[in-house]
Amino acid sequence: MTSAPRPGPLSVRPISSSEHLDYIRSRASVSFLQTPAWATVKNEWRGESIGWFDGSTLVGAALVLHRQLPRVKRYLAYLPEGPDIDWTDPDLGRWLTPLAAHLKQQRAFGIRMGPPVVTRRWHAATIKQAIADPVLTTLSDVPADVRDDAALAVATALNGLGWKEIPTENGFSAGQPKFNFQIPLTDRSEADLLAGMNQQWRRNIKKATKAGVEVVRGARGDLAEFHQVYAETAERDHFTPRPLSYFERMWDALTAEEPDRLVLYLARHEGDLVAATTMVRVGQHAWYSYGASTTAKRDVRGSNAIQWQMMRDAMAAGATAYDMRGITETLDPDDPHVGLIQFKVGTGGEAVEYLGEWDLPLNRALHLGFTQYMKRR
């Protein structure tokens, strides 16, 4: 009896944006942070599309963002929520060793990536119960409803290849969140979605409809109005807002790639803008990316109405998941961040834990200096 032949080595080389985009279109979905357009949005980094080849066949792809160190022509190579490779391969070295070799040639002193690998899931009912339990203070304290041991084994493989997980604080690192909140859409109707929500969410959606809140899709020219409400939200919630130019660049880059890649939503009540959001979709995955609401007229529940419209549009477009993006992992009722998870849990979705972000130092001295610099920021 002969054993199956071992898979051959893979090579990594640059690919064009059009090759990259064609590959993404052949996939069920990849993160929108891994589209060629995202390099245009993040114009303070240098973007590069790369491909993994088995002979002449493209079998994986990634967007790499190169960030230069001050005064030195050395770079951090960052693959946000990527790369898009076969993470189930028991020999991840086939994929990651040629990646490191290619980026070392590009004068990278280190690589940072966020494998799009889900390790655990918690259903809404489990989280609601856990918030009410004074003994449980974080999601990690709560036994998961779904645990993927093969995904957890990827962490062991990465450690064996010299990668180190970046520590998070309350589920957040300097990059992308480790914990997200998602609403599964596969084989569900609008009635199913509504039935899965808690009473408060259903009541608020009904209240918005009764009050006459109208949700419409906006055009590029409406971004300025969106930004006014977004700036008001930033001031109220104490975060630093992005400039209008960022959203204009995001609109231009993403809609050039696919006309409906980015959609702007506006919720109005009697002509007044009360909430505004953006949704990004790549294949079968839709993300709620930015949201804003006014302090005035909060009682008409524009935020609930606009979310409900986005969920329905995502489902109509064939999405299998509506992603509400990051949450902290706190379940402590005294922590101000718990309100975010409570708002999202009301939709009846699930908390999802990713593998987190990982670093591979290629030049240990430069990487250590960079790490110390980031800690001081």
UniProtKB/TrEMBL annotation:
GO molecular function, one term: aminoacyltransferase activity
Keyword check for Ion transport: no
Gene Ontology biological process: cell wall organization; peptidoglycan biosynthetic process; regulation of cell shape
Keywords, in A-Z order: Acyltransferase, Cell shape, Cell wall biogenesis/degradation, Peptidoglycan synthesis, Transferase
InterPro entries, per database record: Acyl_CoA_acyltransferase (IPR016181), FEMABX (IPR003447), PG_Glycine_Bridge_Synth (IPR050644)
Annotated PROSITE patterns: FEMABX (PS51191)
Gene3D superfamilies recorded: 3.40.630.30
Family note: Belongs to the FemABX family.
Protein name (record): Aminoacyltransferase
